[in-house]
Amino acid sequence: MTVDVDFNAEVAENWAPLVTVDLRYVEGDFEQKRFDIAKDLKEACFGAGFFILVNHGIDDPSLMYSIVPKVLSLSKDEKLSFKSTASVDGDYTGYVGDGSGNNVEYYNVGKFIPQFQKPHPEVIKQHYDEIKAFSHECHRVALQVKRLLAIALEIPASASHSSRRVPGSPFAEHYIEDLHRLEDVSGDHLRFMRYPAVSAEVDAQRNNIRVPAHTDYGSLTMMFNPRVVALQVLTSTHWRFVKPTPGALICNIGDTLQFITGNVLKSTQHRVMRPPGDLGGLERHNLIYFSRATDTVRLGAVPSPFVDETAGEVGLTAGEWVAKRVQATTKRIDTRTDEDRRKAEAEYDQLQRVINEKQGYAATSQL
């Protein structure tokens, strides 16, 4: 359902001040323009950690959006037959939710490599080739952003193998890209997400918070811009809504990139609220691509003049970090007894303390 939003004055005056990054001249013989774009991205990612991406070249996502209600309106038993094993082994692919349709739920399609081949519902199988092509386009754009980040971080050309150097460029433009290769095992996935219609009374019991404050686990998140306002980001000490921009992507840095840059790139707290005004009671659909580093990448500092060489080390690989975060998060959803729930909450809180320490945030419960 497409809705033209009439923003109330309070919302319209308090948009998050996000930088717009234009990818039009990233590829090709446009070195100076590419460097200029990298400056815009530097401003965004050294500061807010969120930005608006335009001229990305990804095809119209209408077909992908049409899959959301189809796959998530299946019966409870059928959805649960494709349930993710995330709480056991950290594999986030498949269905995540309680199957009832009364709470936020989503279906994740992972990388199209042998390690992630698994059964899917018929609607996913019917559009498998289109989903694959769309996911690969998302991966292409994510790599372009990472190329710009390497320039923004001024990673020296000497840090890359000679075969990966860009002639004439002083920077290792492909350095961060090479931590995210398409053919490598990693937790990249395309998410088909559904927020059910919820009454104002029910939302009020949760302070109108649909998804609590959190940071994202991986490297880069790209959300296809919804027409309904609901996403808020933490700017300084204030929560502000993100303004929808038709055709653009809402992007944010994840924990992995913040760790390997010693907090230079910001993985910013964000949350999902009840949409303001009359739109609060509508069902909403989201389409999100999550980019993650190759599982075997160590979470150590990248060679940048902005990054302390001792920064970022958490003693884990990217895959281990994501698996721990995913397991801790989904165990909170999947537990059935009070004792198991307490254990899951304690494990999650321990990981959250690690994040808070690395990122300089107060405890999530205070946000």
TrEMBL record:
| InterPro entries reported for this sequence | DIOX_N (IPR026992), IPNS-like_FE2OG_OXY (IPR044861), IPNS-like_sf (IPR027443), Iron_ascorbate_oxido_reductase (IPR050231), Oxoglu/Fe-dep_dioxygenase_dom (IPR005123)
Quote the Pfam families the UniProt record gives.
Answer: 2OG-FeII_Oxy (PF03171), DIOX_N (PF14226)
The Fe2OG dioxygenase domain sits at 186-293
Gene3D superfamilies with a match to the protein in the record: B-lactam Antibiotic, Isopenicillin N Synthase, Chain
Q: Which UniProt keywords apply?
A: Iron, Metal-binding, Oxidoreductase
One Gene Ontology MF term: oxidoreductase activity
The family this protein is said to belong to = Belongs to the iron/ascorbate-dependent oxidoreductase family.
Q: Which PANTHER family match?
A: 2-OXOGLUTARATE (2OG) AND FE(II)-DEPENDENT OXYGENASE SUPERFAMILY PROTEIN-RELATED (PTHR47990)
The protein's name is: Clavaminate synthase-like protein
Recorded source organism is Gonapodya prolifera (strain JEL478)
